Amino acid sequence: MDGGTTGGGSDQADAIPKRRFRWTPRRVDLAVFGGFLLVAVWVTSQIWADPAGRVASLYSSDPAQVQFFLAHSVRVVLHGEFPFFTEQFNYPDGVNLMANTAILALGIPMVPVTLLFGPAVTFVVLVTLALAGTASAWYHVLSRHVVSNRLAAVVGGWFCGFSPAMLSHASWHPNIISQFLLPFIVWRVMVITRSTRPYRDGALLALLVTAQAFINEEILLFTAMGCGIFLIAVVVQRPALWSTAWRPLGKAVATCTVIAGALLAYPLYIQFAGPMAYHGLSDAVRDYGNDIAAYLAPGSPTIGGNQRANVNLAPNYSEENAFFGWSLALIAVGIVLWLRREVLVRALAATAGFYAVLSLGERITWWDRELIVGPWEWLVRLPLLDAVVPTRFGMITSVVVAILLALAIERSRTLPLDPRTLRTLTAGGLVLALLPIAPMPLPMTTRPPVPEFITSDRWRAYVGPDQTLVPIPVPSMGNTNGMRWAAATNLDFKMPGGYFLAPRNGNTGDPGRFGGRPSGIGRLLEEVATTGRTPELNDRQRRRSLDELRHWRAAVLVLPVSQPHSEPLRQTVEQLVGPARQELDVWVWDVRALTDRTA
User: What range(s) does the DUF6311 domain occupy (predicted)?
Assistant: First the structure.
């Protein structure tokens, strides 16, 4: 009986046809999303190896600043701290966080990760998800609303997420590369031009705009301008479209303005009129522009890139906002010429050209040779635009090129070619366009660990709630290790100085600059840290330094034993406040007796 039952079951199993694996649309989407995530992990692999101990090899200041902001999000959630301003650095003046891109829309959802693993891990998680998320979001919108060919959508999403401009910012600016809301904002703007429910669609757009404002306002401004330029270019070609579009567009934009304005009114008031608000960017970055040749060279973090070849083509390696390579640049121009009869393509070309010209900055150059004055010279002083870094306009040009690539692949199916020849030409064109700028792992280098004196909480024996811990050298744009120390404690101590944007001399409403009020002791120690030379200080310098320490309400000065030029720094500080004591891995100066105002 058992044998018969077993045999019958086997026959029955053999009779059931096996299901064949099918690539359903959902499975294709999941595979694409997974592929983008793998590429993002590949790009960030060098920092994933040791998030707390590795940093971008060229500039380490921006990651430290972002980690500080991530720690601030923890304080907002756990302690109910005011989200838009903090005194935890640049004490006692504080820092206007709304004017410094505190990435609250990224930092607050990541609070559990920051608490469990620290802000350094959160930083690399955000970079990875920003690259993959931006590529995936553009793929989703392109595949649903722009093209029917999945390969076209994949290519478009790929270039939006992993263009040289995105790779350039990835080591430093997760707020700038977190563009996963932009395709949905752009699509909602297109929808409201023909909406049958404009008030609902305007409200949805308002929510997207509000969320993006707490990620990065500059990219939001670029997107709004880009949508406006594109729609104007369409209407100029097809004036009849305006008669049907203006009513739903007007209702939706009005709704969006009211709702987003209400949600953002107070944060924007703090940003533009609150304490430590500034008007206009520092002169150090206001004229950042691309060289024309930057659109023909490959980006540094790509297969064909070369940092030395890109010298003077961009403001620095964190702002390579063009760098398509000559093959993609020529192919993009060829696509526009090929599809020039299409209204959509001409409008996209106008948008790309507009942003490419603005990205050149105030002085248009070719291989670092000045040619003419650019239009940005007259726009830079306009409200809102005075807070824009012009080279970043090139990022929108990258998005437009991605859409043009997707459209070209889609339209190629109409060519009178047999399928095999068409596939060969398409593959060859994509290799020629994208292989030279294919992403490589972002270069990283080691950075000093947070001192054990900080991680073991030994500092708590010295610093009270209204006192500061002063890292040596004093934190500034070029010395941000102290900001990482604070971030590692979730900002449990205050400190003077730091890397941020603030009004000159601390006067609210003045033009912006990097750093707070000029500091005599800060400049002195920065010079010693740079040169390694110990100066001979006089009584006047000692008195002024002591006055600054009192102004900061300094409790303890901390110098890591392993700090470069630590011996000259120690000798200099000892001339100011007396002998140091080594505690664990730092030199410590307890200055409470010198700075206590009640003493």
Answer: 81-380
Helices in 214-342 by DSSP H: which ranges?
217-237, 240-273, 283-286, 326-338
pLDDT > 60? residue 315: yes
Q: What is the mean pLDDT of residues 431-444?
A: 94
Residue 15, pLDDT score: 57
Q: What are phi and psi of 287, to 5 degrees?
A: -105, 20
Tokens of 283: 């002169």
Q: Rounded distance, CA 23 to CA 186, Å?
A: 29
Cα–Cα distance, 238 to 234 (Å, whole number): 6
Over 60: is that where the pLDDT of 599 sits?
A: no
Least confident of 53-67, 109-123, 362-376, 557-571: 53-67
Spatial CB neighbours of 571, under 8 Å, sequence gap ≥ 6: 534
Please, what is the end-to-end C-alpha distance for the chain in angstroms? 100
Are the C-beta atoms of 253 and 261 separated by less than 8 Å? no
Evaluate whether 279 touches 512 at the Cβ level (below 8 Å).
Answer: yes
**DSSP assignment of 236-269, as one string?**
HH-THHHHHHHHHHHHHHHHHHHHHHHHHHHHHH
| Burial category of 133 from C-beta neighbours within 10 Å (exposed 0-12, middle 13-18, buried 19 and up) | buried
Residue with tokens 């009584």, as numbered in its chain: 539
Q: What is the pLDDT of residue 3?
A: 46
Question: Among 18-22, 179-183, 356-360, where is mean pLDDT lowest?
Answer: 18-22
Measure the CA–CA gap between 74 and 70, rounded to whole angstroms: 7
What pLDDT was estimated at residue 12? 56
Instruction: Check if the beta carbon of residue 534 is closer than 8 Å to that of residue 581.
Output: no
Mean pLDDT value across residues 465-492: 94
Residue 85 DSSP one-character state: E
Is the CB of residue 205 less than 8 Å from the CB of residue 189? yes
Long-range contacts from 411-418, C-beta under 8 angstroms, 24+ separation: 411/338, 411/339, 413/149
Is residue 409 a contact partner of residue 155, using CB atoms and an 8 Å limit?
yes
Give 317 or 33, the one with higher predicted confidence.
33
Residue 530's identity, in one-letter code, is T
Distance from chain centroid for Cα 599: 46
pTM: 0.93
Distance CA 290, CA 364 (A): 8
- Give CA–CA dist 470/135, Å, rounded: 42
CA-to-CA distance for 569 and 537, rounded, in angstroms? Answer: 13
Q: Give every CB contact of residue 150 below 8 A, 6+ residues apart in sequence.
A: 28, 32, 143
**What's the token pair of residue 104?**
């609250």
Burial class (CB in 10 A: 0-12, 13-18, 19+), 17: exposed
- Residue 497 to residue 68: CA distance in whole angstroms: 13
Running DSSP on this structure, what letter comes out for residue 449? P
Region of residue 16 (phi > 0: left; psi between -120 and 50: alpha; otherwise: beta): beta
Contact 168, 323 (CB under 8 A): yes
Distance from chain centroid for Cα 222: 14
> Hey, is 372 helix, strand or coil?
strand
Give the tens place of pLDDT for each residue, 493-550. Answer: 999 999 999 998 888 888 888 988 889 999 999 999 999 999 999 999 999 999 999 9
Helices (H) and strands (E) in the chain, counts: 26, 12
